[in-house]
Amino acid sequence: QVQLVESGGGSVQPGGSLRLSCATSGSFYAMGWFRQAPGKQRELVAAITSGASGATTNYADSVKGRFTISRDNTKNTLYLQMNSLKPEDTGVYYCNANKTVGGIRYNYWGQGTQVTVSS
Fold first, then answer.
1. How many other CB atoms are found less than 10 A from the CB of residue 73?
2. In this structure, are residues 93 and 5 in contact, taking their beta carbons and an 8 Å threshold?
3. What are 6-57's pLDDT values in tens digits?
4. Are 115 and 13 in contact (CB under 8 A)?
5. 77: alpha, beta or left, given left = phi > 0 and alpha = psi -120 to 50?
6. How far is 20 from 12, CA to CA, in rounded Å?
């Protein structure tokens, strides 16, 4: 059974940093981080995909220049380095992974880890 396990969340002051980790079983074409703040819809924060030319990354405009997504394929682990954190970054962060097998897409989610940025 595929499982995604997040870690690294916590509480920090504005301007601080956190690194989130997502341990997975198996390998995936695409992986990413989503977040959901109270009263808001879940949104994509960053994603990383494999390809013939190597990995490709995408970021939400709100986190560009501050967050960095990476993956360690040997350890089947996804990371999100978050710097210069702002109060609006507060929310539950979810690890996501997907792959297509036999024309069917399989989508997996972690249970989420809380990130709180406040004074």
1. 11
2. no
3. 999 999 999 999 999 999 987 888 999 999 998 999 999 999 997 767 789 9
4. no
5. beta
6. 13
Nearest CA to 43 among 8, 118, 94, 108?
94
Is the alpha carbon torsion for 112, 79, 7, 22 positive or negative?
positive
Q: Which of 28, 34, 19 is nearest to 110 (CA)?
A: 34
| Cα separations in angstroms, 52 against 31, 46, 49, 72, 76 | 16, 20, 10, 17, 19
pLDDT tens for each residue of 64-85? 999 999 998 788 899 999 999 9
Q: Give CA–CA dist 81/79, Å, rounded.
A: 6
